[in-house]
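Summary for the funding panel

The consortium committed to producing paired sequence-structure records for every protein in the target list. Below we show the first two records in order, beginning with the earlier of the two.
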Amino acid sequence: MSNLQIRKMTYDDIPLICKAENDEAESNVEYLKNHMENQENKKCSALIALYDDQIAGHVFLYYECKWGGLKKQGLPSVVDLAVYELYRRKGIATALMDAAESEARKFHSKIYLDVCLNSEYGPAQCFYIKRGYVPDGAGVYFEGEVLGLNAPCRNDDELSLCLVKELKG
């Protein structure tokens, strides 16, 4: 029987996360340190999943997110849900999202996230829809802003759809 644990991330986890992601670049280290600083400053929860005592994934929940589709509206937002390849299809993303949504309920009755539209994110798009997330109705976002009709864009990680979920008590 496997052992799945969700807990708050610590600075000591950063090298292990980078190794698990096969990305030990300084920019990734700084990215993770920034989330840890935001956790220390009570702006977010940085959650990590351990599967059989190995780092299997993470997610960040920002209590009042200042970017993304519904930025600066006082809503909590899921940022950067990641489950590493070896640990997929084991319920880890579900456990991380359950923990993030449970934490978000302390701050608001809604939660949102932005999901990229390129094919690499197809499984994530389906996952969020099955969890009850629905589009915010504003259309597609590019580089954090609503993309106007016939406006040019690139199908990269900056092209996204904002999804919202009502959190039940």
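The next record, for a separate protein in the list, is shown here:
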Amino acid sequence: MRMSNLSGQFRFAIFSALAALLLIAGSIRAQEDVESVEDMTAKYHFLSADDTLAVLEEEGRLKGYIEVAQPDDESDDVLTFDIIDGTREKSHVKFRTNKIHGKYYRFTGTVERGKGHEEKDPDYLHLIGDLDIVRVNSDTGKETVQTVRVNLKSFGRSERPED
């Protein structure tokens, strides 16, 4: 009786190990099946409806700008923060803008495919991560950082502001 019980435990252990290996292999295959983003060049919705992030990717380097509409009580101008340092390695994205009126932006996160099926569709790409809004005191040089978790979705062709 002990021998058949041992044999049953052995078979159960082998079955459990095989099941675990199949689950791990399926998880790895699912990660490989995630559609990678070859080029993240696009315009994205930014913090408010009137703001835009435009990114141009060239060989892992990022260029572009953020256009931020000013509150009506301040001005009707749009401030353009240029991306002065930006990189992409696989899905990891980082960029920093120039400083205007003691303020600049930093982003660290990932680029992912969204729900859009084609490049022209809204929500084709997402930039997901942490956006730092950095304000620099002009007298002391001290930085105050406000970090916002963002999911910036790409514009569709029909909703893109005119270039």
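Regarding this second record: The two ends are 81 Å apart (CA to CA). The chain has two domains: 1-33, 42-159.
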